[in-house]
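Translate structure to sequence.
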């Protein structure tokens, strides 16, 4: 490698800044001059093959995707309640009283025991921090306009759906300021996961049909378009879209180009969509991963190995792409291939590059993955990071503890003070119990033996019920 190239790369390391609002040139090339169903399917092919993140690491990503300004990394942005909550000072740790919520319920595409096998389960584009009580109340209900409420915290309303043409089913209605956010999230989900069309389950069919286009029931299409128009894309959404892109390597196109909703479902379905010239690539360019991407491997035990996959996609590449690890703790990382053919990068599905992290000493480790050559100008940098720890951050409890213990199939617990919250999750991360403490001993009868996660007195603990 030439010294001049190295200097440029080093400068990129120093100035690790996400430039917001920059749709990468070439990312949307494939949707140019497409319309209605063909346009939706072209978007699906762009979005579908992306980096699949680890569900356990969501609070690490939420730290930047859902930090509410002006105190970035401090206040959690909650679209489900008006309660002000703060991130755990240790990045990656959960926030008391909040869940990791699938905006489009995971039960809609698979039974609960299988839903986590699908990429949608870990997709940051529809995963948000949520007030636990609101999440429990809204369950897996459809979006809708609520009449008489059974739950209302001023931001989330739950009750029977009264939107014209909708079935009278339990529904969740977000606050007006977030209705566009949820509409664009649903538009993204049915587009990115167009291949789920035939497996949408009963709960989904109040809003969806088992088809790729238009997929929405007529009433749902009308309502989502109405919400999309009345609550335009906000700066919050734009910032989040960029942050998700730097982790997951795909975007929500209905945030980038809000008019796409009209071309696919609305008043412009008879017209073809044209990609603005400033976003169209005519020469060799690496579309994903974007420069300055972050790839986080989570907490890993010493001497073990985990892997993550990033998707390399490009346009007009003329030669092999070179992959190198540079600086930092590169000895603890490796890649499956150091050279990728141009035809693999230029293909519609791109090239899946597997990257491995195998720490041999405790602590936080970082290095950079440099992607270059192939006829493109400059290079792209992917920042790799992982933590080597001695074990789980959860305290394992299977005997008496000062405020928590198990006896047969009963979990006994005591909050430090009245009105503190207690949350119990099953081994799949589903909230199965939520209660306000009394400051005295209380109990929960477990439905079956197994592992449970208990949030109590400011800590997560793992309980084994035998």
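Result:
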């Amino acid at each position: 490698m030439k010294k001049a190239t190295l200097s440029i790369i080093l400068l990129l390391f120093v100035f690790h800044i996400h430039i917001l609002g920059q749709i990468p040139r070439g990312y949307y090339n494939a949707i140019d001059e497409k319309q209605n169903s063909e346009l939706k399917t072209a978007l699906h092919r762009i979005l579908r093959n992306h980096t699949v993140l680890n569900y356990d690491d969501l609070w690490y990503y939420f730290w930047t995707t859902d930090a509410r300004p002006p105190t970035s990394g401090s206040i959690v942005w909650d679209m489900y309640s008006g309660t002000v909550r703060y991130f755990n000072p240790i990045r990656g740790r959960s926030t008391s009283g909040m869940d990791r919520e699938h905006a489009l319920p995971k039960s809609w595409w698979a039974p609960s025991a299988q839903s986590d096998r699908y990429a949608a389960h870990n997709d940051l584009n529809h995963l948000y921090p949520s007030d636990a009580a609101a999440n429990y109340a809204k369950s897996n209900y459809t979006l809708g306009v609520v009449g008489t409420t059974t739950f209302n915290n001023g931001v989330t309303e739950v009750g029977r759906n009264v939107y014209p043409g909708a079935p009278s089913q339990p529904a969740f209605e977000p606050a007006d300021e977030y209705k566009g956010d949820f509409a664009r999230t649903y538009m993204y989900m049915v587009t990115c996961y167009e291949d789920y069309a035939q497996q949408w389950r009963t709960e989904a069919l109040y809003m969806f049909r088992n088809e790729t286009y238009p997929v929405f029931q007529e009433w749902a299409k009308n309502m989502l378009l109405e919400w999309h128009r009345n609550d335009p894309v906000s700066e919050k959404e734009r910032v989040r879209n960029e942050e998700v892109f730097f982790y997951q390597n795909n975007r929500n196109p209905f945030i980038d180009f809000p008019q796409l909703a009209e071309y696919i479902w609305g008043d412009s379905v008879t017209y073809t969509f044209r990609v603005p010239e400033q976003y169209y690539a005519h020469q060799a360019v690496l579309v994903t991963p974007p420069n300055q991407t972050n790839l986080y491997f989570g907490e890993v035990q010493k001497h073990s190995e985990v892997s993550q996959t990033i998707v390399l996609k490009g346009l007009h590449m003329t030669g092999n792409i070179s992959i190198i690890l540079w600086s930092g703790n590169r000895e603890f990382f490796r890649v499956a291939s150091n050279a990728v053919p141009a035809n693999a990068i230029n293909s519609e599905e791109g090239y899946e590059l597997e990257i491995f992290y195998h720490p041999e000493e405790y602590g936080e480790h970082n290095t950079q993955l440099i992607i270059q050559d192939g006829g493109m100008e400059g290079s792209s940098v992917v920042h790799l990071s992982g933590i080597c720890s001695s074990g789980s951050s959860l305290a394992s409890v299977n005997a008496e503890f000062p405020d928590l213990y198990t006896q047969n199939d009963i979990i006994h617990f005591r909050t430090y003070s009245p009105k503190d919250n207690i949350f119990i999750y099953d081994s799949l991360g589903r909230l199965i119990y939520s209660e306000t403490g009394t400051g005295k001993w209380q109990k929960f009868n477990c439905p079956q033996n197994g592992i449970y996660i208990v949030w109590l007195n400011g800590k997560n603990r793992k309980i084994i019920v035998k």
